[in-house]
TrEMBL record:
BP GO annotations: proteolysis
GO cellular component terms attached to this protein's record: membrane
Residues covered by the AB hydrolase-1 domain: 23-269
SUPFAM superfamilies: alpha/beta-Hydrolases
PANTHER family: HYDROLASE, PUTATIVE (AFU_ORTHOLOGUE AFUA_2G14860)-RELATED, MONOACYLGLYCEROL LIPASE
Protein name: Proline iminopeptidase
Active site: S97, D235, H262
Amino acid sequence: MDRIEVPGGTVWFKRVGGGPGLPLVVVHGGPGLPHYYLSSLQRLADEREVIFWDQLGCGNSDRPSDTNLWTMERSVAEMAAVIQALGLNAFHLFGNSWGAMLAQQFVLDVPSGAVTFTISNSAASIPLFAQNVIRLKAELDPATQDAIDRHEAAGTTNSPEYQAAITTWNETYLCRSLPWPRDLYEAFQNMGTEIFETMFGPSDFHIVGTIRDWDVVDRLDEITLPTLLLAGRFDECSPEHMRDMHERIAGSRFEFFENSAHLPFIEEPDRFDAVMRDFLRQHDL
């Protein structure tokens, strides 16, 4: 049975590979962007089991219509239920983007068997993330900026002009490897847009949802797990902010990807794999 009961419904999971190393639990971003875009982490499954799950409301999991479910608190409870149901006593934890925000809250609030924590291309504060997105938008060409602002103000975000502007944004600050791999397209096709709109808002440029005030910067010093932070030069999640996170997490390791935006496992796969394998092997019990 590849389903787990969580608050609000059931979620789908997949266990891949195996080996002598401790399992790696992978937490996807979005909110609502299912696990497909992280499929390249299966490359690590020759040394250890790699475990994926689609968070409630997206991908292969249940898609309940109750928007009251889309909060950080319920997401943490979901993650706790998944870890418990998988029977994991000792495991490595990897989160990308929103997934690493959720995983930060989980590590801070829920005792578990996590042995290490990898924060990939993320933030510890939605207000700081929002400021950075506005700064990056101002660096786009004026026509692209204008198309984003005009169509978001008018509510015409389905227009080809707006979609073209968002494609420019995504190919600049999300994934610079072109053409995008099929896994990344599939994730967007199976996205839980209702979750994103409820938790974040209509777009990254208007974060007005349930997690708009989320901020754990002042709690980062409570993270005592061996922690690896991955940052990309062109990332919509500010590498400067990630360096500050690194400085607040005692003993953490910081790896900077010169040619990546938000997805170094796709954009710089060889270096990503080498860094991950080295870090995980160091901490296998």
